[in-house]
Amino acid sequence: MNKPKKLVVHLDKLLEEKNITQAQLARKAGIDPSRLSSLIRGKRERIQVEFLTLIAEALGIDKIEEILTLEDAESDEENKLIASKNVK
Question: Which pTM does this prediction carry?
Answer without folding.
Answer: 0.81
